[in-house]
User: Fold this.
Amino acid sequence: MACPILSTHSASMGAKSMINWLQKCFNRKPSDAPERAPVPMPADWHLTLDDLFKEMEDGKRSSVGSPELEWARAYELELLPAQTRFPKQGDVYASNKDQMVAYLTAWSGPFTDGGEALLLQSERVWVDDDPAQEKALSVYVLPVEYAKLEARMVPQEDRTHPKFGGFYLQVKTLDLNQHFTLIETGFKAQD
Assistant:
């Protein structure tokens, strides 16, 4: 599946649409990516993904696509500290502080929604699936105390809707390294 091009119209749809778009673009398995020769990154490239989206908001770009997305991702990887630990399936992290996190809601149908919610200090999240890339810039995680956090984070009208299929969080790898503590590896959900 090819990553959709984000238009100026799409950017005006807000954070929820942006989260959905990012999910489609950056959390694909490598085998989902089309085969093509990479375009070399210019030596003076210095834009992050956030920079590209800001340029769209400011009207400097009408869309963001390849190869700029790949260059921005590569540049962001270069900016990470050398000791950065990339998340792996089964990792459990505890929040070091009260912090806002992005969440997404799943639905039975071709739709994803979401927003931001407060994750409290010491609340735990875990990586329930292999990250899309070995060196993922962000990862999807589930709360260890799923029902408790779902009730607090997701609006009741969403949780009680017959097509609601659950929720999950998206956390940047840098944030996991700076604002969370890895407390366990190899975790598996209890049925």
Observations:
- The first strand starts at residue 6 and ends at 7.
